[in-house]
Design brief:
With 558 residues, this protein is an alpha/beta fold. The chain has 18 helices and 28 strands. The strands form 9 sheets. The protein has a 6-stranded mixed beta sheet with strand order 5-2-1-9-22-21. A hairpin with a 5-residue loop joins strand 26 and strand 27. InterPro entries: FAD/NAD-bd_sf, FAD/NAD-binding_dom, NDH-2.
Length: 558
């Protein structure tokens, strides 16, 4: 007897979460297969694409192969194909790989950027709604700023070095926050003054982050961005885009070759003729049980909706937001009611299921505003930690422990240029973090040696008087603080060799010599003052000796 298919279209958050939940609930039901259809063979963490676009993380950070996600779920079958339509009477999903019959169907095809028909956006702008688009932005920004640094014409130069983001919602704000940090890296790479790279945020309404109920959080975000050089222009409606820049409703212009449009979200356009009732943004309207609404206003008995495909207004929490929690709440409601259709449980409405934990908007890796649970509003470092906790929670819903481990490494330990909440002090790319405990141990050892507080046998191996004792105190204190670790490591080696020569060999001398050599790799930058002091000294002495590098020179006319 052939198995019955429960088909999920779309491998975004809503679709993957629904497929995982169905797989678990139907594990003992051998009559059913879950078919997950998507045009890609991987899942993309859509809410982190801004980190890829701005070169904070590698593309694989936000990408997970579907086979990895579902390898242990033997009742889930994957199909990489594009969906052409749905035959509701025959219960068939038509795809580029053939027809797929379904017993129940969940449509979670996701969304796309909504440019509201603004002329020139698609031809001359960029959108951030897929891995491909994020990589296009990543390459474009790098190349355009590089070309701008070499451009001598001041008009063209300014145009190339201006980056504009249209829309101040979650996506636009988070992307702009990343550009704030990437600007430092680009300026250093191409020998630019950081202020030459202009960041402009454009918002048609009078205020930014309009979805925030607490305007104090929005004000903090506004203040942080403006203090970091972002030109925020509200009441600025874009009417057209061309290859040289942007035109506004009042006729004014902004010259740029880098416009990223994040001003709206709508459902994928290919579902528009599938015979459903469509709401705002072309989304499929659903009833309280997440069943799709037909064009005659009746509920589809076998078709459910989740994610950015869904249009639904909950009577207690309002419209379902285009967020991960919104997608997962809708997917969970759909799964519960599909199971009820199969005789496995009772029906529940979206109101019965919905649960929001809050949200956090990161403005780069160093600053975040967050509204959690029941009006717990925080900002800064702790809000950033909350953002990562929320991300890890969502990861735990659909991804493996290995993926969570790699997320932690990518966000905290594999970052470059100080782009993590700890400003790079715990980055393992420098191979210094794991030498920090050794550095601290050596520091404590030298202080105890100076004070004569080692055990009786070891006291005889070191000096506790005069200049030697003073040097031991300096070395110990400096190593604990992580200040001037390289020269103090060298002094530590000299002290150990001197003690060896004066008092005879002991294995502790080898430990001190080799341990001191190990921490000279820069371990003072791992939770130490060298992280701040050494770059500052390098900058000062570097400019004193070599001057300041520029992207072009005109010294003969000075």
């Amino acid at each position: 007897m052939p198995k019955k298919n429960i088909v999920v279209v779309g491998a975004g958050f809503g679709g993957v979460f629904a497929a995982k939940l169905l797989s678990h609930k139907l594990k003992s039901q051998k009559d059913y297969d879950i078919i997950l259809i998507d045009k890609h063979s991987y899942f993309t963490y859509m809410t982190e694409l801004h980190e890829v676009a701005s070169q904070r993380v590698a593309p694989q950070h936000v990408q997970e192969d579907l086979e990895h996600l579902f390898y242990q779920h033997k009742n889930v079958k994957l199909l990489t194909a594009e969906v052409n339509g749905v035959d509701k009477s025959k219960r068939i999903v038509s795809t580029t790989q053939g027809d797929v019959p379904y017993e129940k169907l969940i449509l979670a095809v996701g969304g796309q950027s909504n440019d509201f028909g603004t002329p020139g956006v698609k031809e001359h702008g960029f959108e951030l709604w897929s891995m491909e688009e994020s990589l296009t932005i990543r390459n474009h920004i790098e190349n355009t700023v590089g070309q701008g640094a070499a451009e001598l014409d001041p008009v063209k130069r300014e145009q190339m070095l201006t980056i504009a983001v249209v829309g101040s919602g979650f996506t636009g704000t988070e992307l702009m926050g990343e550009f704030i940090e990437q600007r430092k890296v680009l300026a250093k790479t191409y020998k630019l003054d950081e202020n030459e790279i202009k960041l402009v945020m454009l918002e048609a309404s009078p205020q930014i982050l309009n979805m925030l109920k607490d305007r104090k959080l929005a004000d903090k975000a506004y203040r942080y961005m403006t203090e970091h050089g972002v030109d925020i222009r509200t009441d600025s409606r874009v009417t057209s885009v061309d290859e040289t820049g942007i035109t506004f409703a009042d006729g004014s212009r902004l010259a740029t070759r880098s416009l990223i449009w994040t001003a709206g979200v709508k459902a994928k356009s290919f579902i528009s003729d599938w015979g459903f009732k469509y709401g705002r943004g072309g989304r499929i309207e659903a009833d309280d049980y997440m069943r799709a609404t037909s064009d005659d206003d009746s509920a589809e008995e076998h078709i459910y909706v989740a994610g950015d495909t869904l249009s639904y207004v909950d009577k207690t929490t309002g419209p379902v937001p285009q967020t991960v929690e919104g997608a997962e709440n809708a997917a969970k409601t759909a799964v519960i009611n599909i199971l009820a259709d199969l005789g496995l449980g009772s029906r529940k409405t979206f109101t019965d299921v919905v649960k929001y934990h809050g949200f956090a908007v990161s403005i780069g890796s160093h600053y975040t505003v967050a509204s959690l649970l029941k009006n717990i509003n925080i900002s800064g470092f702790m809000a950033g930690m909350a953002k990562h906790a929320i991300n890890l929670y969502f990861y735990s819903q659909i991804r493996s422990a290995y993926s969570i481990f790699n997320y932690t490494l990518d966000e905290f330990f594999r970052t470059e240029n100080g782009r993590n909440p700890f400003r790079g002090t715990i980055s393992r790319l420098g191979n210094v973090l794991w030498a920090t405990p050794l550095r601290l141990l050596l520091g404590v050892f030298w202080i105890l040696a100076a004070l004569g507080n080692l055990n009786t046998g070891m006291n005889d191996l070191f000096w506790q008087q005069g200049i030697a004792s003073f040097l031991e105190l300096i070395v110990g204190s400096g190593l604990i603080l992580g200040l001037f670790t390289w020269p103090l490591g060298l002094v530590s080696i000299i002290l150990a060799i001197s003690a060896w020569a004066m008092n005879g060999f002991d294995v502790i001398h080898w430990f001190l010599i080799l341990g001191s050599l190990a921490i000279m790799n820069g371990s003072g930058r791992g939770i130490g003052l060298d992280f701040f002091v050494v770059p500052l000294l390098q900058k000062w002495f570097g400019q004193l000796w070599y001057g300041k590098a520029k992207s072009y020179y005109d010294e003969i006319h000075k």
